[in-house]
Write a structure and sequence with these properties.
The chain is α/β, with parallel strands linked by helices. It is built from eleven helices and twelve strands. A hairpin with a 2-residue loop joins strand 11 and strand 12.
Amino acid sequence: MIEPLLKVKNLRQHFKISRSFTVKAVNGVSFEIFPGETYGLVGESGSGKTTIGRSIIRLYDPTDGEIIFNRDKISGELDNRTRRRLRKNMQMIFQDPMSSLNPRKKIGDIIGEGLDIYKLYSSLKERNGIIGEILKKVGLSPAHAERYPQQFSGGQRQRVGIARALVMNPKLIIADECISALDVSIQAQVVNLMKDIQDETKCAYLFIAHDLSMVKYISDRIGVLHKGYLVETGLTKEIFSNPAHPYTQSLLSAVPQPNPEVERHRQLITYDSDKVNYEHCIMRRVSDTHFVLSSH
């Protein structure tokens, strides 16, 4: 049995707004990611996808639950050794490539910041060589290292974000809706680039998105998130061919079809979440890799 690279057990992320009001963004989510695989996390806006990614990488302190990454427990207080291992082996690609890049720094300095912090080179020449190689790997030129973020298009800036994550040679990359702000043609280029890099480096992805067609293309397994609860998870093929939860069925029914004949007769499935009491749900086994939440 291959040991999971990431284990998330009963993760809860709550934000206290006032004395009497708390936003329960994530409620008891559990899943695993294995080395070299892509786990897609899908759901509507506000379902808690980004919050989960930020909690895993510890941009947020989890309210409750356990997160184990590369055999290290990274929930709760982190000692310096664990924090450094986490920062080096887990990276994040953010949704907005412009706001995540410092406009006052050149691309080479942005990408090389991790190299500088962890002293992963012995000379300036070696540092520039590493940055040049990673730029070529993501489809840019080493000469681009001397440019600023505002001199690039949206797709190129996202490639810079990917390069910044890859330069540390991480074991896990959290891609937080990294293609949602891009044109459709650029989305395909970026996703194909990510697949090629995964084949080469064997890194794992937590791919957060709401575009089901793209998630189907890149993911090995999928988790469906709704109102902070993981309502269904399983193999990509199984989720798309046999969705078990009504919310998953509703999501899939809303995906446009490229065939006009099929699209003309497509039936939308409505889902009334107000009738579901998530606090009284249990895990129901469907197959070896497929679980859904089912009301009592």
